Amino acid sequence: xxxxxxxxFFISMVPLIELRGAIPYAFNPFFLGxxxxxxxxxxxxxIGNMLPVPVIYFFARKVLEWGKDKKYIGKFFTFxxxxxxxxxxxLQEKAGRGLFVALLLFVGIPLPGTGAxxxxxxxxxxxxKFKESVIAVMLGxxxxxxxxxxxxxxxxxxxx
Length: 160
Hints:
Number of strands: 0
Helix content: over 70%
Oligomer: single chain
C-alpha cells in the first residue's frame, strides 16, 4: 500500500497529469490492488501537486525565457512560455479584478492544460503576488481533487 501512495505522490507532480491522474489511480482497484483510503490519498495527491508550485512561480518563467532561443530546447520552451502567456491573458480578460477567483477556477476545473503548473506559470507571468497565487492554486487543486474523486467514484463504482 505504501508503494501506491508513493506512486500517487509522483503522479501528482507530473505536468499535465497532476492530481487529475493521481486521484483516479488512487481509487482504482485495478492498479496495485485495493483502493487507498480517501482522506490520506487526497492529502498525498494535494501535497504532491502543490510541491512544485513555489519552484514554478519563482523560476519557471526565467528558465523558459532563458531557453527559448536555444537550439534543441527552444521550440519546447517557447511553446510552454506561450501557453502560460495565453492562459494568463485569458484569465486577465475574463477576470478583470477577480483574478484570484479566476485562477482558482482555472486550476480547479479539471480540463486538459488547466492544472497547477499552468495556473502557477500564468500567475507568475501576470505578476500576481506569491501568497495570493499559491492560495488560489491550492484551493483550485482541492476543487479539482473533489471533482476527480466524485467522477472516479461514479466511474469505478459503476464498473465494479
